[in-house]
């Protein structure tokens, strides 16, 4: 005779294990409910997250173009680009241009070596102390003597270093130092000399004018070309005439 094994039922709250398993299988899965955080805690977490993100990024640098630098950070440099001598001026006006009275009949005394250069230079350097304005130019540099002041301009890097040995400020050179520097090279290099005063072997060059008329979109205009050798103070005198004209444009051909 077969015997049926005896099954043992363990009840839990009046239910057997089979009933409990069946109920669990048919009930929806439950997920743990998130704990609610206070608004202050959420804000702190957000700030911490942003802080961590910022720390991982490289710091941004602000580029400031040279023209936008703070003025206090830019060291002022002596101005060395001023013209020493102008070969011609072109003046455009709305009516016929006339020279200022101070320049009417003005001439410039010019020497361009190398014949009789020693004699011409020796007389020129005597006059620079009293002449209103003078310019001495060699292949690598030029000096202008005006109103007791001496300025220098270099045309090469080597000359720049030589001039800076005389003075770190090329707009303020000692007169004797400038003359000595020219003395040392005048025997072997060609000089060009210009002065408001006459000196040995110099040639007279007057200021000449040539005017033409032309039509523009705003009416008739006059173009006047002033040719000669004009010093900075003479260019300023021409420019001072702009108050006499409704239209006044000035361009220059700078020699040094």
The gist of it:
The chain is an alpha+beta fold.
Termini gap: 137 Å
The proportion of residues in beta strands is: 25-35%
Radius of gyration: 45 Å
Tell me the major beta sheet: 6 strands, antiparallel
Explain the overall architecture.
The chain has 256 residues and is α+β, with helices and mostly antiparallel strands. Helices cover 27% and strands 28% of the residues. It is built from 6 helices and 12 strands. The strands form 3 sheets. The chain has a 6-stranded antiparallel beta sheet. A 4-stranded antiparallel beta sheet has the order 10-11-3-12. A two-stranded antiparallel sheet has the order 1-2. The longest helix is centred in the first third of the chain and has 18 residues, at 39-56. It is globular, with a radius of gyration of 45 Å. The model is unreliable at 1-12 and 66-81 (pLDDT under 50).
Secondary-structure topology with pairs:
Layout (H helix, E strand, L loop, with lengths): L10 E2 L2 E2 H10 L12 H18 L29 E8 L13 E6 L4 H11 L5 E5 L3 E6 L2 E6 L2 H10 L8 H11 L6 E4 L7 E4 L1 E9 L2 E12 L1 H8 L8 E7 L2
Antiparallel strand pairs: 1-2, 3-11, 3-12, 4-8, 4-9, 5-6, 5-8, 6-7, 10-11
């Amino acid at each position: 005779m077969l015997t049926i094994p005896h099954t043992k039922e363990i009840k839990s709250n009046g239910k057997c294990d089979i009933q409990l398993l069946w109920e669990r299988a048919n009930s929806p899965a439950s997920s743990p409910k998130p704990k609610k955080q206070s608004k202050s805690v959420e804000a702190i977490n957000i700030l911490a997250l942003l802080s961590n993100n910022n720390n991982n990024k490289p710091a941004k640098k602000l580029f400031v173009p040279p023209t936008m630098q703070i003025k206090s950070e830019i060291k002022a440099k002596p101005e060395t680009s001023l013209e020493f001598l102008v070969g011609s001026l072109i003046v455009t006006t709305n009516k016929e241009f006339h020279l200022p009275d101070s320049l009417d009949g003005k001439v410039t005394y010019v020497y361009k070596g190398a014949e009789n250069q020693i004699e011409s230079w020796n007389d020129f350097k005597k006059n620079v102390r009293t002449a209103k304005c003078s310019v001495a130019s060699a292949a690598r540099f030029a000096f202008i003597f005006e109103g007791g002041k001496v300025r220098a301009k270099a045309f090469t890097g080597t000359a720049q270093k030589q001039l800076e040995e005389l003075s770190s400020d090329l707009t303020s050179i000692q007169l004797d130092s400038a003359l000595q520097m020219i003395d040392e090279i005048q025997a072997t290099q060609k000089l060009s000399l210009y002065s408001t005063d006459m000196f040995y072997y110099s040639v007279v060059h007057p200021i000449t004018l040539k005017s033409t008329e032309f039509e523009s979109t705003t009416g008739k205009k006059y173009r006047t070309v002033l040719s000669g050798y004009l010093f900075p103070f003479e260019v300023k005198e021409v420019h001072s005439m702009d108050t006499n004209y409704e239209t006044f444009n000035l361009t220059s051909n700078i020699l040094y």
